[in-house]
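Internal ticket - ligand job 159, zinc ion:
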Amino acid sequence: MRLTLTAEQVAALRSHAERAYPQECCGLMVGTAIAPDHKKLVAVWPVENTWSEDIAEALQDDSTLPASHRYAIAPQVMLEAMRAAQSQGLDVIGIYHSHPDCPARPSECDRRLAWPRYSYVILSVMQGQAQDLQSWQLDQTEQFQPEAIVLSPPPHATP
Ligand SMILES: [Zn+2]
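stdout (structure tokens):
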């Protein structure tokens, strides 16, 4: 399991995560499979975190609750993204979201909501600064395993 992305894409993910802080951001990763266990990211599509809106509505101005640490993507948004990706010969290959003031490790909620074969990139944002970024994918037993991230072009390209 490998995920190839560019330094610009990493910067886009980090900047979205920092803009959303202290809320959790989320978005879709669009790309293509370049081998059975190797995906290449082509575009990052930030989407609205509909979970936090629901929470805010349900809880009104209850400020004692921590900022949303969950995310949700509306099914309609997901469907439209899949269609848009396919029209460009691409696929939705995964979902990214941030963990404000928490490590870049998936929560139990993340695991239960995860789909097989998707890459789940989690960004840790500590005090507004994006830190680690880790990709995860479910294995056969529906447990998250870390997915290797390959930077393209490699930091030290050899001729
Ligand atoms: Zn999470």
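Auto-summary: Residues 25 and 97 are 5 Å apart (CA to CA). Residues 97, 99, 106-107, 110, 122 surround zinc ion (CB under 6 Å).
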